[in-house]
Amino acid sequence: VSDWSSDVCSSDLQEVFYSTYCYQRILKMFDLLVNLIEEYEDASKTWNLDDKTLVLNVMKECISVLSVSAMANPQKKTILMQSLDSLTRFHRFDIGQFDLVAEIFNDNPGALVGHQKKMMNFFKNLILSEGHQRRFLNFFHSLIDFDEEDCEVKQKLFLDLFLPYNVPTKMCECLNLLYGFINSNTEEIEFYLYGTFGKTNDTNKKEK
Questions:
Q1: Least trusted range by pLDDT, from 80-94, 125-139, 187-201
Q2: I want to staple 146 with a disulfide (CB 3.0 to 4.6 A). Which of 28, 39, 96, 107 is the partner?
Q3: Residue 196 — very low, low, confident or very high, per pLDDT cuts 50/70/90?
Q4: Which pLDDT belongs to residue 178?
């Protein structure tokens, strides 16, 4: 038990945890508890406070064990990456699930671009609907933290995610910065800073 309470458990314990499929049992338990909460909410049932607290605490322990089991181990993080849908189903309460998702992508060169973009969109929607909470923003930090050479590429992806390529002319009049466009020749995102307002993307493409 003491091994699981530390920030990083031994690699041998991590190996046993995954080779015996214990992580799958933890994920299944987590899913069952999420189903239980959703069932009560859908039926508008009233929860006993002690019961609700118990369920949330067990869910938090599930997340904690999974976090420690994958810490500093890209191979195990990649295994948990297959369960992102389960880990992100429940976000009404902060039980560490998004810190775990951020850890899965942190310092993990095996993270697939498809998974990265999917989670980027997921967290973007949460930020737009629920605000700039630390637990949502940590994911973006985790993507650019492990590889300095990859940092610029990820920054472009973030800009692509939150800012539109095509800005209406009326909106251009109110913007100091129109961050860029896709170069049709190189298919790369290019950046430019306007000194004056009112120019459009098409005009600058011709100038370039």
A1: 187-201
A2: 107
A3: very low
A4: 42
Per DSSP, 180 falls in state: E
Q: Which DSSP state fits 106? A: T
On the question of pLDDT at 195 being above 50, the answer is no
Task: Tell me which residue has tokens 């998702």.
Answer: 101
CB burial of 57-73 (b: ≥16 within 10 Å; e: otherwise) equals eebbbbbbbbbbbbbeb
Both structure tokens of 149: 């050479």
> What are the structure tokens assigned to 160, written together?
């692509």
Is residue 186 a contact partner of residue 194, using CB atoms and an 8 Å limit?
no
- Could you tell me how many helices (H) and strands (E) the chain has, helices first? 12, 2
87 is written with which tokens? 């880990």
Amino acid at 10: S
Distance, in Å, from the CA atom of 182 to the CA atom of 188, rounded to the nearest integer, reads 5
pTM of the model: 0.69
Q: Which helix (H) or strand (E) holds 91?
A: none
| Bridge partners, 190 (sequence order) | 181
Angle at 177 between CA 171 and CA 183, to 5 degrees: 95
Structure tokens at 200: 């459009």
Q: What is the DSSP letter of 182?
A: E
Using the Cα atoms of residue 50, residue 52, residue 57 and residue 62 in order, give the sign of their dihedral.
positive
Structure tokens at 117: 């973009």
How far apart CA 137 and CA 98 sit, in angstroms, is 10
